[in-house]
Design a protein that fits this description.
With 103 residues, the protein is mainly α. Helices cover 83% and strands 0% of the residues. This is Cleavage stimulation factor subunit 3. It comes from Ovis aries (Sheep).
Length: 103
């Protein structure tokens, strides 16, 4: 059970630069340098963890096409990889079936 706690702690780790950026945004929600740090961090996270950052970003800058594009690309990328993985498994499965028929 202590292993689960360690896993949760590791999953909740927040880099110091992100903490500083969050603090800057509390003082000035339009600080683009702080947002840049959060965007870079979000781009290195799974979409389910990054989504909150992207949603805050587009809420703060609703008319920024650039920020909407980043958010949409993050969402589309996960769909693309899911689709690619699923199709690969289907095609790999078909090849195995075909190979078994030929033998």
């Amino acid at each position: 059970m202590s292993g689960d706690g360690a896993t949760e702690q590791a999953a909740e780790y927040v880099p110091e630069k992100v903490k500083k950026a969050e603090k800057k945004l509390e003082e000035n929600p339009y600080d683009l340098d702080a947002w840049s740090i959060l965007i870079r961090e979000a781009q290195n996270q799974p979409i389910d963890k990054a989504r909150k950052t992207y949603e805050r970003l587009v809420a703060q800058f609703p008319s920024s096409g650039r920020f909407w594009k980043l958010y949409i690309e993050a969402e589309v990328n996960i769909l693309f990889y899911f689709f690619l993985y699923r199709n690969c498994n289907i095609h790999c499965s078909d090849r195995k079936q075909i190979r078994n028929i030929d033998e």
